[in-house]
Write a structure and sequence with these properties.
By secondary structure, this protein is mainly α. Helices cover 72% and strands 0% of the residues. It contains 8 helices and no strands. It is elongated, with a radius of gyration of 19 Å. The N terminus is likely disordered.
């Protein structure tokens, strides 16, 4: 028996059970929130606000604008609690609300002069870091990655963030962005390829 394969199967089973437990927990929280339980609703906000912010910032590229959209997203969630269909991916549904609000916000404020345009990188949003890597070299690499990610086209960046930071699969991303799964895969492939090319000097690799 291949021990590596066994570990992989065990890990997959554990992750699948964890996802089931999370769905069950969210369903219970939603049910309580619908009955007016404010603590349940606050728990939902805490569980998802970072991911909503990542999505909003990846589209708007501005700290204050992204924060405004996050607040509006959860206000809209509170109003739409009864509209959520049980069994549907809650996170994907919530991110779709956020994405639509981002689009509306962008259209409404398009052309507005931004005197305080943020130059914050995605690294400042506290993305995941390699375990135990707090060395200066590791920090520099994270900064380089953030700069490279910011240089991607909007759709490539958005797909990459949703897959690797929000943990959505291709089908879920396609639903949120209202594009085909094939387009999502293509955008992700291009994002990875472009990131590799942009980071190759730092990594000492050929593009």
């Amino acid at each position: 028996m291949n021990p590596v394969a066994g570990v992989g199967a065990t890990y997959s089973a554990v992750m699948e059970r964890a996802q089931v437990f999370q769905r069950e927990d969210i369903s219970r929280l939603l049910e309580k929130a619908r009955t007016g339980d404010r603590q349940a609703f606050r728990t939902l906000v805490v569980m998802h606000q970072q991911r909503v912010y990542l999505l909003a910032y990846s589209l708007l590229r501005n700290r204050e604008d992204a924060t405004d959209v996050v607040q509006e997203t959860f206000m809209r969630l509170f109003q739409k609690l009864d509209a959520y269909e049980p069994g549907k991916n809650f996170q994907g549904w919530l991110l779709q609300i956020a994405k639509n609000l981002c689009i509306d916000y962008y259209r409404k404020n398009y052309g507005r002069r931004r005197e305080h345009q943020s130059d914050m990188s995605l690294q400042d949003i506290d993305p995941p870091a390699p375990p135990g890597d707090s060395s200066p070299a590791g920090f520099d690499l994270r900064q380089a990655f953030s700069r490279a990610l910011a240089r991607l086209g909007e759709r490539q960046r958005l797909v990459f963030v949703m897959k690797h930071y929000n943990g959505l699969d291709y089908r879920e991303i396609a639903e949120v962005l209202d594009i085909s799964t094939g387009t999502v895969k293509s955008l992700h492939f291009k994002a990875v390829r472009n990131l590799r090319a942009l980071l190759s000097p730092q990594l000492g690799m050929k593009p």
